[in-house]
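Q: Could you fold this chain for me?
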Amino acid sequence: MKKYQRTAIIGSCGAGKSTFARQLGKIIGIEVIHLDKHYWKPGWVRSSKQQWEARQKQLMSKEAWIIDGNYRSSFHIRFPVADTIIFFDFPKWLCLWRAIRRRFQYHNKSREDLGGINKERISWEYLRWIMMYPRKETLEKLNIYKDSKNIIVFKKPRDVRKFLNAIKSKRPGQGING
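A: Sure. Below is the predicted structure, expressed as C-alpha cells.
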C-alpha cells in the first residue's frame, strides 16, 4: 500500500491536526475525515461507544482517507488499517494557546471540522485534557506499529511546514512516495 493513502492524524487539542489534514488532503487529493464531525451530536452530546466504533469502521472502509482526531479509546480501530500515523507532539503551552485563540476566533460559530452543528466552546475540562494529554502512552502505542506503519512525529510547527512543502514540491508524475 502506498504511503498517505490511509493516514491517521493524532495529537492534543489545539495542535493543528484539522488544519494540517485539510492542507494535506488538498495537496494529495485524498478525502479528509474529521472525527469530531462524526462523534459529536447537537448540543455536544457524545456518541455511544457502539455507535462510535461502528461509524469509524464505516468511514475507514473507504480505499483512501486522511482521518483527523485523537480519540485514544479507538486507536485500535484506526491504527491497524492506516498506512501512515502522524502524531502532533507539540508543547502543551502551544496547544493551550492555540485552543484558547481558536475559541475567540470562532466565537459563536461552528468550525467546519465540527460539522457545523455545535458552536466553538472551551471549558476547564477541555483545558485540563490538553494539559494532561498522555504523550508517553501515545508514543508507547505508536512504538507497537513502528515496523509496520509509516510513523511521523512532528515536534514543532516548522516540522509540519517542512513536511507539507516537501509533499508540494514533488513534481507531477513523481508521486508522493518517492
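A (continued): Residues 93 and 106 are 20 Å apart (CA to CA).
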